[in-house]
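Customer escalation, tier 2.

The customer says the design service returned an amino acid string that "doesn't look like it belongs to this structure." They asked us to rerun it and document both sides in this ticket. The original structure tokens are below, unchanged.
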């Protein structure tokens, strides 16, 4: 999901914590340290996650401050994942089993032998199949400690939260009605106690 798409889904976050001065330089250094790697194409790794540039997500470059507009930062999360269709695995597994039986003159393989064959098939296929890249844009106002992530997918949001914490040693708090009330409404302690006991209400026409 991209910032410039005709339709967008957005998750809003509050950024908890502080970046040490100089802020932009430290952010840039951490982006570089956690930039997406292309190594997945050469091995059996199923998935890798990293930062990439908004303007050119397939050639990440964080040199200079091209991703900075005042106190707003614009860059992207990229998740490269290899997905091998189950039917492809089954096809190659069946052929490999038949080959093993023919070589040994046996009628059956043990459970462990079958698992070894399957693991080998997946290993070989994973080295041959290209990873599918998915990019998700984000805008971070580091001065106001607010971040907008252009996806509501659970897996993508979890990847963002984990990588953001790893990269910047900051926590992301999703802003939905409960957290907005708790963090921004200036509630007293008794009010917060009442809020914590509320449960969602269903609405019907």
């Amino acid at each position: 999901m991209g910032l410039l798409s005709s339709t967008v889904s957005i998750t809003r976050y509050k950024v908890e914590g502080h970046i040490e001065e100089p802020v932009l330089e430290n952010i840039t250094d951490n982006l570089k340290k956690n930039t997406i790697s292309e190594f997945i194409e050469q091995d059996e790794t199923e998935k890798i996650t990293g930062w990439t540039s908004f303007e050119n997500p397939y050639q990440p470059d964080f040199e200079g401050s091209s991703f900075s507009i005042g106190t707003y930062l614009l860059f992207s999360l990229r998740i490269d994942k290899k997905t091998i269709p189950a039917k492809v695995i089954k096809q190659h597994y069946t052929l490999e089993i038949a080959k093993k039986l023919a070589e040994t003159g046996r009628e059956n393989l043990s459970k462990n032998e079958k698992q070894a064959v399957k693991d080998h098939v997946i290993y070989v296929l994973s080295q041959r199949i290209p990873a599918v890249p998915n990019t998700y844009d984000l805008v971070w106002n580091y001065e106001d400690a607010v971040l907008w992530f252009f996806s509501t997918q659970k897996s993508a949001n979890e990847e963002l939260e984990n990588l953001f914490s790893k990269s910047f040693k900051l926590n992301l708090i999703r802003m939905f009605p409960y957290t907005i009330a708790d963090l921004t409404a200036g509630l007293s302690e008794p009010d917060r106690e009442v809020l914590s006991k509320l449960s969602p209400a269903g609405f019907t026409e």
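Tier 2 assessment: The sequence is consistent with the input. The chain is about 40% helix and 20% strand. Residues 86-127 form one domain. Sent an explanation to the customer and offered a walkthrough call.
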